[in-house]
Amino acid sequence: MFHAFGFAGAGFQIAPGVGEVLAELIRDGESPTPIEAFSISCFTREPQRGVPPAGRPMS
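and the corresponding structure tokens:
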């Protein structure tokens, strides 16, 4: 079972796109859609390269 969650308010508008990416991840194990900015690492002190920490603009 796979579950996508966290849609409140305007988040419902992106649900079709999330569904497409989730289907690609399930089927292929990867997606051509850039989703790195949504990685859990954005909440750590060492973000992924090229992805700013939450609340900080990219320089």
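(Above: one complete record from the training split.) The longest helix spans residues 15-28.
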